[in-house]
Specification:
single chain; 318 residues; alpha+beta; Arc Repressor Mutant, subunit A; 5-stranded mixed β-sheet; 15 helices
Length: 318
């Protein structure tokens, strides 16, 4: 804090989030096990007023669906956790991806974000046992019990990290609905996003351009959207240690994984949605990303879900 010119008083006064990178400095030996326990413990302290500009719309949301709508405005308070949405007839799947650049810190922000959301939902809409948090790594080796607020709703060793919300739960009413306050807050959040739209890196600029217009996400199209030449985009991405292909494929991988969690969505449709000309090309790309074909990934996910259901949703470490 001293090195970067911050004081505890300033953080509180400005309602600033503590930079996630500080955890690595304070805990240089932080590993996924400890990071997960930190994330779950921090989530136990989350309150409806803990999320800055998202707090007012959280409190005034009329339904669980409106609470999840607010996740789209998460960049207003943090860029370290990115949600990916897929809605189907069965409900809503929200993929959770960490973007800290540090695997252990990714575990911390995903565990915290997912568990905090379950806690907030319980505060706003009453206990929702059907809403489950799935984490893509083993349970902490510590024998410390899981927080009471999410006991029985936390699944480890999942195929990816996500929150599963059954369709009936989305319409569950919240306790303090205020439609006028909610919509006014949403309008202000949109303005804030637009005002703060300038990313801090070319990598993030390219990523946003692809996410905002996935049907025109080719190298030439994105460069034109950004008002740069293809060679300039390449040079700047090189300087940040990445490539256009890596950025685009990361986005496609995240979207593919969330869609594959929906067993009713044909793999051929997922391939089309992601811009692949045929299933073969998509399968080849997906296997390169994950080491499994889309079918293998989906079957493994189905097996893990079955195991979690028979064991009360909590899959212990192997």
């Amino acid at each position: 804090m001293d090195r970067e010119g911050w004081s505890e008083l300033e953080l509180v006064r400005r309602d600033q989030q503590v930079p996630i990178r500080w955890f690595r400095e304070v805990y240089p030996d932080l590993d996924p096990d400890r990071a997960t326990r930190f994330g779950l413990a921090f989530a136990e302290q989350a309150q409806l007023t803990s999320f800055g500009p998202l707090s007012l719309p959280l409190v005034s949301a009329a339904s669980v669906a409106e609470v999840f709508e607010l996740l789209g405005y998460l960049p207003v308070i943090s860029g370290s956790l990115r949600p990916h949405f897929h809605q189907s007839s069965a409900g809503l799947t929200v993929g959770l991806t960490g973007h800290t650049g540090d695997p252990a810190l990714d575990c911390l922000v995903i565990a915290y974000g997912g568990a905090a959301l379950l806690r907030l939902l319980d505060m706003l809409a009453g206990e929702l046992p059907a809403v489950t948090l799935h984490l893509a790594w083993e349970a902490p080796r510590s024998s410390t019990p899981q927080p009471d607020t999410i006991a029985g709703r936390l699944v480890f060793d999942a195929r990816t990290s996500f929150i599963d919300v059954p369709v009936d739960t989305l319409s569950a009413p919240c306790r303090f609905p205020d439609p006028v306050a909610y919509r006014m807050a949403i309008t202000e959040l949109r303005r804030t996003l637009e005002r703060d739209k300038t990313p801090t890196s070319v990598t993030e600029t390219v990523r946003r351009a692809i996410e905002e217009n996935p049907d025109h996400s080719g190298r030439n199209e994105v460069a034109a959207t950004l008002g740069m030449s293809v060679s300039t985009v390449k040079r700047r991405l090189d300087a940040e240690g990445t490539t256009f292909r890596e950025v685009r494929q990361t986005i496609l991988r995240e979207r593919a994984i969330v869609r594959l969690l929906d067993p009713t969505l044909p793999i051929s449709q997922i391939a089309i949605d992601l811009g692949y000309g045929d299933v073969g090309n998509f399968s080849h790309a997906f296997k390169r990303w994950t080491g499994q074909s889309p079918g293998e990934f989906r079957r493994a996910g189905r097996r893990i879900r079955t195991e979690s259901e028979t064991s009360g949703h909590h899959v212990p470490p192997r």
